[in-house]
Amino acid sequence: MSVLVECGVIRTRPKDALAARLVEIFDGITEILARHRPDAIAVESVFYSRNVRTTVTLGHARGVILLAGQQAGARIHEYPPAEIKKAICGTGAASKEQVQFMVARLLRLKHPPSPADAADGVAAALTCLMTARIDALAGRR
Amino acid sequence: MSVLVECGVIRTRPKDALAARLVEIFDGITEILARHRPDAIAVESVFYSRNVRTTVTLGHARGVILLAGQQAGARIHEYPPAEIKKAICGTGAASKEQVQFMVARLLRLKHPPSPADAADGVAAALTCLMTARIDALAGRR
Predict the structure, then answer these.
(1) Closest approach of chain B CAs to the CA of A75, in angstroms?
(2) Per-residue tens of pLDDT for chain A, all 141 residues
(3) Distance in Å, alpha carbon of A122 to nearest chain B alpha carbon
(4) Domain range for residue B30?
């Protein structure tokens, strides 16, 4: 059975310069990786929002997260958001609330992870674990 | 008069995983910053290409470059590509060759920086210097 050790979100101030915010994200992720030393990291693949500017800013953030993961020597797995929702809720169109509910159920938590973004992160990690198990059962690695 | 100390490009292998390429870019920039300890860094602002995927991948690379710059304590200046071309060549529609030619002229180089991407980097740095001078003359800082 999978056990949730820690989950959360890193928040930065929108008023701060992008470079300063990237340092905060990088330092936050690096600290968590040093603390838990994971073998693998699951990251949502790029979400192409209707607003290209948002997608590109997100790309900057993903860049420093992938950097931190690679520096820590972890295997990096990427999953499209719809694939994560499908793995956890059975449908790629699941709502934030459905993801929170299913994450809580699968991990036998008393309360769903909050905020919803933290639950999304846990859902990505669970997708990674489930995929690894299916691969193991099928004799793949 | 401005003097060119070093210019160049960091190339990564397109076949490598994005995270590995980001580490190469980050390490390369960090090494250069440690060697020259610049007060300021000039970076092209995001170029929205017709291919959103390219723009987003570029966002990842910019993310680790801005991170390296901020970690090194340098002031980061961003300029749209057209503004750089206008400052150096007089027109925002200048060709790669025109930028190479003008960069060589302004810095009294025997040969224009090559490849053209290296000249673009030098052009961004020159734009930063010219803007700083104009601000100083106008009593701004």
Answers:
(1) 10
(2) 789 999 999 999 999 999 999 999 999 999 999 999 999 999 999 877 778 888 889 999 999 999 999 999 999 999 999 999 999 999 999 999 999 999 999 999 999 999 999 999 999 999 999 988 777 788 765
(3) 21
(4) 15-79
Q: Residue A31 sits in a domain of what CATH number?
A: 3.30.420.10
pTM of structure: 0.91
Residue B79 — φ and ψ, nearest 5°? -135, 135
Residue A10 belongs to a domain: no
Find the CB nearest A52 among B48, B61, B71.
B48
Instruction: Tell whether A64 and A38 lie within a shared domain.
Output: yes
Phi and psi at residue A75, to the nearest 5°: -75, 130
DSSP per-residue string spanning A71-93? HTT-EEEEE-HHHHHHHHHSSTT
| Domain count along chain A | 2
Between chain A and chain B, how many beta carbons pairs sit less than 8 Å apart? 82
> Is A67–B23 a contact, with Cβ atoms under 8 angstroms apart?
yes
The span from the CA of B50 to the CA of A125, in Å, is 33
User: Domain for residue B7, yes or no?
Assistant: no
B22–A66: do the CB atoms touch at under 8 Å? yes
Angle between helix A18-36 and B52-71 (nearest 10):
80
Nearest Cα of chain A lies from the Cα of B106 at a distance, in angstroms, of 30
